[in-house]
């Protein structure tokens, strides 16, 4: 059987994090290496990112943030279950610990998500075409229900369901990272039923956990796409249940590739209120940028009839 044609959404996450991340993401988009971005509205360079998206007509969604920096909603910045004693979100793992202890108010989660959607609209002049969660918090228990309700309330049609077909075969991932990704996948599987009940859609295949940072190369992206297509069948256990309106029975397979390109952050500039983290300062950001812009990868897309597009094009 010939390889099916693919609609590939290459999403640059963390747009707005700092000026150097913004510049790298824009360079990638102008080179045809990414096709979609997700904006952190509580980041230090969110306004600049929004202006760049408008200037360059970059398809843009909301990277909802409940784990890093400061809430957008003013009244949640103190005496809130979402923040620690210093007024900052609890962090990637801290958020999960507070949630597991039953100490997180879902009413406050909803208020913050609504505030971030409203700020996105103020910055861009329109609703996000898609909305996912920074550090995958949107698929966590309880949070997923609130997240789906907010998407439905605002009519935001697309989200991300991070279940990657080749994850379990990647024995080379460090054990702590593999365990975290495995838990993300389990939460994502469980969230798919909730999202589907609210009429929310997502691409047929998700990629990105196994191709991040130093693990990204032209060959690793090719391999991930190949494995995904080999594994994906509409009725297979690897096909996360979703709305049938994403693709027709004869249509192309839709894929999202999550990426984090950029130029490494200046240690004194960026972040969401606490300065840029080590992830953003890492040389891996530029490594991703250079890999995504590699002429060999762009030629591969053309050769295999892989069409880069945005969520709004699905």
TrEMBL record:
Q: Name one Pfam family in it.
A: YdjC
* Biological process annotations from GO: carbohydrate metabolic process
Answer whether the UniProt record assigns the keyword Hydrolase to this protein: yes
* Protein name in the entry: Carbohydrate deacetylase
Taking the record's annotation, the residue ranges forming a coiled coil are none
State the organism named in the record: Paramormyrops kingsleyae
User: Where are the stretches annotated Disordered?
Assistant: 264-286
This molecule's function is given as: Probably catalyzes the deacetylation of acetylated carbohydrates an important step in the degradation of oligosaccharides.
């Amino acid at each position: 059987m010939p390889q099916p044609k693919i609609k590939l959404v290459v999403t640059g996450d963390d747009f707005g994090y700092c000026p150097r991340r913004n510049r790298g993401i824009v360079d990638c988009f102008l080179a045809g290496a990414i096709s979609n971005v997700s904006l952190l509205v509580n980041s230090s360079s969110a306004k600049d990112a929004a202006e760049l998206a408008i200037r360059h007509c970059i398809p843009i969604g909301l990277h909802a943030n409940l784990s890093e920096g400061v809430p957008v909603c003013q009244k949640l910045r103190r005496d809130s279950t979402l923040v620690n004693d210093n007024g900052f979100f609890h962090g990637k793992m801290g958020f999960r610990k507070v949630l597991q202890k039953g100490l997180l108010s879902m009413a406050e989660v909803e208020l913050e998500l609504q505030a971030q959607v409203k700020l996105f609209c103020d910055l861009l002049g329109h609703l996000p075409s898609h909305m996912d969660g920074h550090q995958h918090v949107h698929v966590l228990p309880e949070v997923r229900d609130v997240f789906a309700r907010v998407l439905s309330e605002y009519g935001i049609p697309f989200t991300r369901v991070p279940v990657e077909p080749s994850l379990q075969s990647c024995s080379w991932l460090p054990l702590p990272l593999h365990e975290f990704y495995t838990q993300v996948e389990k939460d994502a599987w469980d969230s798919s039923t909730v999202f589907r009940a609210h009429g929310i859609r997502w691409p047929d295949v998700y990629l990105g956990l196994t191709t991040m940072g130093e693990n990204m190369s032209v060959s690793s992206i090719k391999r991930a796409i190949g494995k995904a297509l080999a594994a994906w069948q509409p009725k297979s256990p690897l096909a996360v249940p979703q709305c049938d309106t994403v693709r027709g029975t004869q249509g192309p397979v839709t894929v999202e590739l999550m990426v984090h390109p950029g130029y490494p952050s200046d240690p004194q500039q960026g972040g969401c209120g606490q300065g840029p983290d080590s992830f953003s300062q890492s040389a891996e950001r530029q490594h991703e940028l250079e890999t995504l812009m590699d002429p060999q990868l762009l030629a591969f897309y053309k050769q295999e009839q892989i069409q880069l597009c945005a969520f709004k094009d699905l």
